[in-house]
Write the structure tokens for this entry.
Amino acid sequence: MTEEIKILIDGCIAGDRGAQFKLFEKYSAWAFAICRRYGRDEGQAQEMLQNGFLRVFKKIEQYDPERGDFKGWMSRVFVTTSLSYLKLNSSKFSFVELDHASESQIAVEDFYSFSTEDLLKFIEKMPEGYRTVFNLNVIDGYSHKEIAAKLNINEATSRSQLARARKWINNSLKNKTHSLI
């Protein structure tokens, strides 16, 4: 951890608004990108971002540098905050369980030619259940067991949602039904 980050963390623990503002300035664009992946639109993502930073400032004394880097800790806070927001503000996740869902493959090179902003807009168009599991597994690296625990679903449902998300992406790219540009 850099000395700058340590000073900011110590300042935030002490309740120093200047340190909180500097931490927000340093990480807000990065954190907003996490929230955008989970939110349906920019307004939802802004609310997730605000809630996430409130949680960061409230729980920052719980950060332990021995257990990982600060950015990784913050990432988990923003993912958890985004999921909590979705649970509170969505009528229900639309999860459909499949016993033997096959996982079709997405060609990673299909995404290389697109900007981050275009990819975020594309992911926003995914049905909420697909988007949530896709983000947790593919982008944030959570296992199906972890996803099941976070979303209060079973592992088979998590796997089926990921399979359906991948199929949705493949069909969208193939049929150009959800243009990236």
